[in-house]
Amino acid sequence: MPVRTVLNTTIEHVSILDEDGNFDADLGRDLIPDDDAVRLYEHMSICRHFDEIAFKLQRSGRMGTYPENRGQEAASLGAAYVLRPDDWLVPCYRENTGLFWRGLPMEMILLHWMGDERGNQIAADLAMTPQAIPIGTQLLHAVGLAWASKYRGEDRISCTFFGDGATSEGDCHEALNFAANLNIPVVFLCQNNGWAISVPTKIQCSAPTLAQRGMAYGMPCVQCDGNDIFAVAKVVRDAAELARTEHRPTFIEAVTYRLGDHTTADDARRYRDQAEVDAWKKRDPLLRLRNYLSERTLWDDDREKALAARAKKEVAAAARRAEEIADPARTDMFDFLYATLSPDIEAQRSTARTSSLGVDPTQLDDARSSGIEEAV
Amino acid sequence: MTRTIEYRDALREAMSEEMRRDQRVFLMGEEVAEYQGAYKVSRGMLDEFGPHRVIDTPISETGFAGLGIGAAMSGLRPIIEFMSWSFSLVAADQILNNAPKMLYMSGGQFPIPIVFRGNNGAGGQLGSTHSWCVESLYAGVPGLKMAIPFDAYDAKGLLKTAIRDDNPVFFLESERLLGIKGEVPEEEYLIPLGQATLRRRGDDCTIVGFGRPLYFCLEAAEALAREGIECDVVDGRTIRPLDIDSIAESVRRTNYCVVVDQSWPFASIGAEVAAQVHEHCFDDLDNHVIRVHSDDVPAPYAYNLEQEMLPNARKIVEAVRAVTYAG
Question: d(Cα B76, Cα A106) in Å, to the nearest integer?
Answer without folding.
Answer: 30
